[in-house]
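Below: protein 1.
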Amino acid sequence: MTTEDVRHLSLRACRRAARVVRTAEHGRQAYDTVRPRGTTGVLRLAGPLSVILFVAAREGRLVWHGPGSFALLRPPIVRRDPYWAGGPKLLVLRILERRWETIWLAGPPTLAMAAAVGCALLGSPLLALGVVLLGVAHLTVCLAGLAVAGLRDIVGTFRIRPDDQLAAQALPALRWSMPLCHEEDPDRAAELMAAVSDRLSRLISVRVRGAGPVLGAEVDEVFVTEALLCLMTGVTTSAMRSAIPQQQRVGLPYGISADVVFLEPRDQRPGDRGRAFNTASFLLWYVFGGAAVLLMLAYPVADRERRLCGDRCAGRPDEYGEALRWLGQRLLLTDPPDLRPGAPGATLLGLLVSGMALMTIPVAMVALRQVWAAGHRMQANFDRAQEDVHARTKVLLLVARPDEQKAVLDLARERHGIAPYPERRRPHTVFRLGNLAGTEVMLATAMGGPASEAGVEQVAASVIRQWRPHHLILTGTCLGLRPDEQRLGDTVVCHQARNLIHRAVAEVDGRPTEYPRGGFHDASAALLGAFNAAAYGWPGAGVHFGTFLGSGTLYRSDQAVSDLRARFPDAKAADMESYALAGVAAEHKVDWIAVRGISDWGDTAKGDDHRDEAARNAAELVFHVIGSGLLDPYAAGHH
């Protein structure tokens, strides 16, 4: 079974998966997370786990790699699919899944009443009474559970709880969440989480595109900014609970061992960070303290009344129980009809108790405001924590050959411990290289000709629209133009890309002479400054700064290259992609630069002996600049 045919998952397979969850290491806790107790505290809020999995599979919310590897996605309450979508069978199963507590709360008493009526009509009144009593017993148990659960919730409301527990309780109703994750092989955690991220993006994109025609619009690009709540109590093994927080795109707003982490959205936006507190427990201290005061005051009130009343104590709180009852009545600002103190001191104490009761109102209001504020701050903390992660600078690396792609991927894995994984955005696939010094790094490859869909201009325009990077860096190999000062394998950083394709030809002294008419694009000043700073003291291959000549011509001629050097004495290198990329970057207002290694001189001895070395040297300089933090404008303010 693969992620593609999960729609045909059988109910039997779902029951088998549910058994696997229940028998897992943390299966009971995961089961309680995906099927929590409802308002009664007795009945489950959601239907059987097998039904939950079956409905999720039909709705595309089940990421399924087999019975040993799957994850469940759950939408916010307001974004659930309609009950009737998918036919009668799915309608019934959705009712069972979403209304399980209601069915079991109201169903048995209703059936008991119907059965009792039937028994009475058949002449069996005792049997009818027994059936009614069974229904009443069921309802009594549920109502008792409701009272106990309500009291527990009230007490729990004023208990100081960690923010991650508050988030785990409140946020799933508002956001997409992952309440269940089962993976028997923790080494495949990255694969499963990548599939979860891709599925969430697809689900949201499909819903947005589907809403477009209804609103009279056509939706092309969808930028998914939803972060997925990962409920760690729904993860079935300790190994996976340790592996998930270590994944590349997992944010930790409450720490690595919290009940909630989140999977970063596909598209991001900048922001800040905050912190939340829950500080309403003082209301309980006030209530319990007031009760303790009454228990203590009752003794001196009874003692003073007993001393003063002598033999005429009727109607006066001269016993401890009566004094406590009188003080309790003073909480309602009145005296009991049969009790009234005679001692002046007792009357004053009664007034003070009434004042204490009146003070309960503002104390309760402040406490409730604190509870509301704690929830609000918890939500804001989560949002801002996401935004802090999302504020990372995005850098898109672009290469034009498979060997250049391999050089970047190998370097990312070997030197920086990054495990690249591909993510498809039609029609291109981009490698996500993770986060380096506060910067999110991606890699795209353009291997087609100038006019093809896989050409540099087309690929760059597509990935810029879909990924919205802050910086675009072209890396790989180039033709060196200054062998007197350069060496094969050295890196050239472009400060200007000049177009050689457009030119004019005129006769001078009877000979045709060419004049360049192409334009030029300057590289980003910010990127140029960052590479200039990083080149100082750089221990790697030599670094040169200068003009790149852009041409669609493949040079393998001593004379042609010699002419280039003579006509453009300030040029340091030539390639086929820099100028085209610069035009796309200028159109989309993205900072760009080209950093490429010298693989040959364009002469008759041109070969591929130094291509791998040149591509790797250029990639090393690029990763050095990224790793230094020079491309992250948020680093200074957020660390």
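Below: protein 2.
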Amino acid sequence: MSGLSVIFAPLLPWAVLGAGAGLAVALLALALWRGLPGWPLRGMAALVLLAALSGPSLQREETEALSDIVLLVDDRSASQGLGGRAAQTDAAVAALEARIGALPGTELRRVTVPDGEENSGTRLGAALAEALAAEPRARVAGAVVISDGQVHDVPLIPDLPAPLHLLLTGAPQDWDRRLVIQTAPAFGIIGEPVSIRLRVEDVGAVPAEVGGRATVSISIEGEEPKEYEVSVGRDLELPLTLRHGGQNVVQFSVLPVEGELTTRNNDAVVQINGVRDRLRVLLVSGEPHAGERTWRNLLKSDPGVDLVHFTILRPPEKQDGVPVAELSLIAFPTQELFIDKIDEFDLIIFDRYGERGILPSAYFENIRDYVLNGGAVLVAAGPEYATVESLWQTDLADILPARPTGRVLSEPFLPRPTDLGLRHPVTAGLEGAPGVEGDDGPHWGRWLRQIELTDPTGEVVMQGARGAPLLVLSRAGEGRLALLASDHAWLWDRGYEGGGPQLELLRRIAHWEMKEPELEEEALFAEVEPGSMALTVVRRTMEGQADPVQMTLPDGSTREIVLQETAPGRFTARFVAPEAGLYRLAQGDLERVAALGPASPREYDEPIASPEPLAAALAASGGAVTRLSDGIPTVRAVRAGRPAAGRGWIGITPREAAATTDIRVVPLLPAWAWLVMAALLSVAAWLREGRGRARS
């Protein structure tokens, strides 16, 4: 194909040519005013000269017709795997490739859309915009999208220069039941109820026999789930009470119903971080001593601790004749603290307390019951623990984890973790800890006094002078106890011989007694790596080895995870997950649920195929929606402005684009021809004017 056109390449600037044309017109006007008969010929001569100076040339273009381009966008996101959509898509792709390929002068560009990163859903708009930018817009004759219509970046769909068609997968009778978490707090106070709002919805062509009731099961921290009957389509306010600090994993599930499209949106996981409003501590010091201020400063330095501290300055046996009314001391409110309000305390600390008749024996029975019902007691024993004033001589002896021998070891000694203590979370990994057998490197400072204990019934995690138990931890009923057989922990705080981790040790003891999951001896949990699809399975145990962990994947398959010991008492394994969802871990009686990404990915939020998200883009381009359940449409070429779809067919608009292959430019006339023409016209004008003067 070729085309011919005239172009100009002036020898002088257009402004100069314009000035020359103006001068020629002025001279012609003068000749006309003077009545010269040759003025037309003079004007033609001037016009020829101006045309020659404008440089007219003939341009011949050789062009080649270009093929039209049709974009085929193939949605392969997760929701396209539901029902028979994958088979529908495969059949449609194969048919369109054959039919569009058979059209003369038409090419097909296929674009596959996977799941979006970080649970962003179907990024079809971005894929279509990228594909359109890679092609010349003048050649794009249409775009065909094979999808369920659930697109999550509709604003990114570009304006197309040709029709956009949607071939909708799925079936009109599809329906699904899903669980929607509407509101859930990120944090909650331990022991106080938090509210979670959820809703069970039925979407699509719901069969009449399904009914309006659903069964919801709720499991906290992998425990045995509890089932509840709820109404479908109504909001449900669910109060939960957090029982421990740290992450509390709550799993919700809707019992599957036969015929629903998918069960991937029947589960949801809420992770609530449990925090304590205040840690209420009762510190009872039996007498003033060097370490008392250390205890007080330690507990008061934590803004999350409410401390009630009593020091017994005037024991009953002290009788000096001073009237009680003249004393400025505060009376010890024993009944209020140990009878009326004992359950309000999270931890009771007896610091060098000796039984001198201040607390009636019935009160110790009440303290014992407080522990058995879930309370916590820490005994920091001094020399009185080895005498008849010992707490061992009270009703607390039933639950105290070790018996005093009656000896006080007054000699320097280095506190050391025991073999068990190296594995126990309370004492494992304390900074600067010496080995069990000792070493020559830097280590903690020594203490100077210890009460000898015997017959420990709890876990001895630290030992002191002559290998005697120094720190014993035990459980009693629902509660916990810790016995520290020395009143010289304050030496670490004062930096004696380099000091030691007093603050961290006491913090761990208190948190262990508060049943914090991070300090449980037997625990199974998963640490999710931020920004990745990997998690680390962690098994903490006091045993020398850990059995493999059974992992259940979101698709129901199971895998056996073999653990390796990475630290004393800590066994781990890294696992790269194939997909987002819920991963259930189980080993013996221990169970745990970990969520990678959302429990129900975004792709399953709206599983029913629908053209609504793309309706505006289809209408703007003149395209249409065709359900693949009604058959695969044929493809026709239609002129721009005509209907682009009909019953059983969709249309593309040929663009008739062409590419220039060759351009040739030749002067309209050679320079000498322009000069001859101008000269002849000028001579003719002169001759005519000469004959006119001769006749006159």
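The two ends are 61 Å apart (CA to CA).
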